[in-house]
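Limitations

Structures in this collection are predictions, not experimental determinations, and the ligand pose is part of the prediction. Treat each record accordingly. The example that follows, with zinc ion as the small molecule, is included so readers can see exactly what is and is not provided: the inputs are given verbatim, and the output is the predicted complex.
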Amino acid sequence: MRAMVLNTAMLPLELERRSIPQPGPGELRLRVLACAVCRTDLHIVDGELPLPVLPIVPGHEIVGVVEALGAGVEGHRAGDRVGVPWLGHSCGCCAFCIEGHENLCDAPRFTGYHRDGGFASHVIAEAAFCLPLTLPETDAARIAPLLCAGPIGWRSLKAAGEGAHRLGLYGFGAAAHLVAQVATAQGREVYAFTRPGDHEAQAFARGLGARWAGGSDECAPEPLDAAIIFAPAGGLVPAALRAVRKGGRVVCGGIHMSDIPAFPYRWLWEERSVSSVANLTRADAREFLDFAQAHPLQVHVRTYPLRQANEALDDLRAGRIEGAAVLLP
Ligand SMILES: [Zn+2]
Ligand SMILES: [Zn+2]
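Predicted complex:
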């Protein structure tokens, strides 16, 4: 098998050939059809997150075909198409798992972080965390972003609240381009904030239903009910607080963000709140995939051959991608 491997943080991934692994009890071996590149992969490669395992194969938005089943696997068959998300394992017995918050598990194993992920031709995944894929869309590249960008947007949208009619989105990348369509389909108004001067991203947002699009240095034309921040820039937190109405919510959707600068308490006062979204439960992913089944989404992707994973990461880092970058083995 081939894999793009992170041996040292902040250095390019290296192409390696390895023998094809065998699935252990409860595991599946998949032949990877496509794997999208998430901003979390960039934070891993750039050493912005602590790295518990090196070398590691990144990638946690995997669409694959079941090739081999380990002992005791039920509910999957060879030839099935499944998705592998970020949450690759949760313990099932900590207080968070018991309460249904497996996204906050005390002993999780994340795909492409604790265990090798999908920047590869093959991957081993825990069967219980693989998601059946029955979408009308058949192009694996257009399904891959629905395994993290989509459900993280979905969970963030739930955190924004059902009353969030006027919704701000800061950072219009893979997650925002999907959640904008979900929010619009739900009858909400989307206000998209991009890097200042990024007129292409603003036009992209308007094309996907945004009522307004402008730079993150601009004021929203109306007070917002809630805002979701996908860009990893802490300076957007006070900006978003200033854009939301009394009682408005600001939700941070990323795993890493630069420091949030100090700001006057009065920007938070009047019952505004700031919260974060961490990881995903399997239920989030299933809910989102059910929504995508009923409301086909336009998934914009730029595909790269697996060996060009470093170019894809560079393009994501530089903000050159409309929608999601996807690797094809
Ligand atoms: Zn992700
Ligand atoms: Zn747990």
